[in-house]
Each structure stands twice: as structure tokens, then as C-alpha cells.
């Protein structure tokens, strides 16, 4: 899928699961709690956690593959796409609530237009801010966080939100203008 318009659906965004069984439990709880229409997987899904259970991650993510749009992380392999029943691209673009949403695993090194949303993972650190009319979002890591804890992000009803994956409490939100 290249540029697609998916309207005002509810999006759950996660990154850097790294095959963590604890992270997988948090992800499945978040999906059950939030009931997203679309799940954006920012990569680094199966490998690298101390509590790694790649097979459980494959089983769960392939069971929900029809709702998942994924990009390839630096720890993912081309053969993972077949196991996860998804297409792993370097970058994807959607139109969400009238805004272009670009997502990939590693941070972007380019300019964006006013109103664009740039979403990436890789750093394992959550962030959400607006600068010069461009929205920047990183959900952090749900499996191996390098900040205050595992997290994910939501886009719903014209708002971007960072969420604590343990409690489901919103950490920070920004309205899309």
C-alpha cells in the first residue's frame, strides 16, 4: 500500500517489541483495551529481548495481520514478512484525518509540509511534539524501553497520544489542527 486514505479510524502504533514476551503481553492488552481499527508496526518485532519468544510474537501478530501495516526495522529480516503475514517496507504513507502520515523505523532526515505527521521508532524513547506545523511522534518501545517505561501511541478523533503501556494512561496528547 502506498498512499492510502483511512479516514478517522482509531490507530494504535507500536515499535521495538524485539520478541519480548512481556512486551507482547502489554501489546495484546493494549489492543484489547483500545480496540484499534488499524495497527501500525514500526519494526524490530522479533529479535533482541532478554525474554525473547519470537514464536509467540509471530503467532499473535499473524493472527491480527489483516489490521496491521508494518515497516521493516533494522533488526528485522526479509523472511520475517512471510512469518508475520505482512509486507515489510522501508516507509509507508497514509492520509489520516486530512494529514499525511509518514512512518518508518528509523528517524527521518528530510523536510515535511505543514500538517504532516512523521512517525518513527528505533530510539526506544517516547516523544510527541509539534514544530513549525509538523507533528513528530515516537511511541517508544513496548518491549525494551530506554525511558520511563513501555509505551505505544494512538491517533483517534483528531488527536495524537502517547500512552503508558502498563497502565493505559495517556502520558501526553496533541490535537491535530
Structure write-up:
By secondary structure, this protein is of the alpha/beta class. Helix content is 16%, strand content 36%. It contains three helices and 13 strands; from the N terminus they run E-E-H-E-H-E-H-E-E-E-E-E-E-E-E-E. It has helices spanning 21-34, 54-63, 80-84, and strands spanning 3-5, 11-14, 38-41, 68-71, 88-89, 91-96, 99-104, 117-120, 126-131, 134-139, 151-156, 159-164, 170-175. Strand 3, helix 2 and strand 4 (68-71) form a beta-alpha-beta unit. The model has no long low-confidence stretch (mean pLDDT 94).
Radius of gyration: 15 Å
Residue-averaged pLDDT, rounded?
A: 94
Instruction: Note the total helix count.
Output: 3
User: What is the terminal separation in angstroms?
Assistant: 26 Å
Characteristic key phrases:
177 residues, 7-stranded mixed β-sheet, 6-stranded mixed β-sheet, alpha/beta, 16% helix
Give the SSE layout.
Blueprint: E1 3-5, E2 11-14, H1 21-34, E3 38-41, H2 54-63, E4 68-71, H3 80-84, E5 88-89, E6 91-96, E7 99-104, E8 117-120, E9 126-131, E10 134-139, E11 151-156, E12 159-164, E13 170-175
Parallel strand pairs: 1-6, 2-3, 3-4, 4-5, 7-8, 8-10
Antiparallel strand pairs: 2-11, 6-7, 9-10, 11-12, 12-13
Amino acid at each position: 500500500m502506498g498512499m492510502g486514505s483511512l479516514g478517522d479510524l482509531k490507530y494504535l502504533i507500536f515499535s521495538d517489541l524485539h520478541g519480548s514476551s512481556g512486551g507482547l503481553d502489554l501489546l495484546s492488552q493494549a489492543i484489547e483495551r483500545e480496540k484499534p481499527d488499524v495497527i501500525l508496526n514500526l519494526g524490530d518485532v522479533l529479535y533482541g529481548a532478554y525474554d525473547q519468544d519470537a514464536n509467540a510474537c509471530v503467532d499473535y501478530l499473524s493472527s491480527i495481520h489483516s489490521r496491521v501495516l508494518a515497516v521493516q526495522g533494522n533488526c528485522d529480516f526479509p523472511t520475517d514478512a512471510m512469518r508475520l503475514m505482512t509486507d515489510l517496507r522501508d516507509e509507508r504513507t497514509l492520509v489520516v484525518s486530512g494529514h499525511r502520515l509518514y512512518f518508518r523505523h528509523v528517524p527521518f532526515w528530510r523536510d515535511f509540509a505543514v500538517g504532516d505527521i512523521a512517525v518513527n521508532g528505533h530510539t526506544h524513547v517516547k516523544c510527541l511534539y509539534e514544530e513549525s506545523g509538523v507533528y513528530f511522534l515516537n511511541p517508544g518501545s513496548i518491549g525494551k524501553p530506554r525511558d520511563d517505561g513501555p509505551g505505544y501511541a494512538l491517533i483517534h478523533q483528531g488527536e495524537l497520544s502517547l500512552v503508558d503501556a502498563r497502565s493505559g494512561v495517556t502520558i501526553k496528547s496533541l490535537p491535530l489542527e
